[in-house]
Amino acid sequence: SEAMKINQDTVLRGKKVALVPYTAAHVPRYHEWMQSEELQRLTASEPLSLEQEYEMQRSWRDDADKCTFIVLDAGRWPGQAEENSMVGDVNLFLTNTEDRTLGEIEIMIAEPSYRGRGFGKEATLLMMAYGVRNLGITKFEAKIGQENEASICMFKKLHFKKVAVNSVFQEVTLRLDVSDQERRWLLEQTSHAEEKSYAELRQPAGLLDT
């Protein structure tokens, strides 16, 4: 099941964000973010130890049903160290074994100073276009906590429609079916993006200190 290693050398570069594969080098910063109670609540996740977070990163990298990118500030990277340029992450899950064309998308802008500035929107669009082009996705779902107005609002701007409310988990499910028209719109919205090789853009470790 090599499916999700598909992005291990992929950088998706837009105007504001660069999406890079989630590697062990990103774990300490990611772990730091997830100590935040607010982020735990918004992502419905439990805090993990640093060791568990490394374990999670390894399992995600090898999981054929998950595609994960770390969101970097394209204004800072390449140039600055990746851990100092990290603003969040974006995930695509193939949760339905019967239907491999359905992708569940998740976006987290963990750095508060980057919220509400279009970083999440561009990262989500880049991930959606990647899913449509490279993974054969034709339908997207997003499950968002009911109180997370900003995120619900953003997905609605990206043409998602509310299809369900789960009062037990207090979450809303939004959905987008990628018709030909939606596909054209999505590819137009991301026409500025470039796909590059991560190996070529990454700086060798020795150069980061200079």
Automatic annotation (TrEMBL):
It comes from the Eukaryota. It is an enzyme of class 2 (transferase). Its EC number is 2.3.1.308. InterPro entries: Acyl_CoA_acyltransferase, GNAT_dom, NAT9-like. Pfam families: Acetyltransf_3. It catalyses: N-terminal L-methionyl-[tubulin] + acetyl-CoA = N-terminal N(alpha)-acetyl-L-methionyl-[tubulin] + CoA + H(+). Keywords: Acyltransferase, Transferase. GO terms for molecular function: tubulin N-terminal-methionine acetyltransferase activity. SUPFAM superfamilies: Acyl-CoA N-acyltransferases (Nat). Residues 37-188 form the N-acetyltransferase domain. N-acetyltransferase that mediates the acetylation of the N-terminal residues of alpha- and beta-tubulin. Belongs to the acetyltransferase family. GNAT subfamily. This is Alpha/beta-tubulin-N-acetyltransferase 9. It comes from Struthidea cinerea.
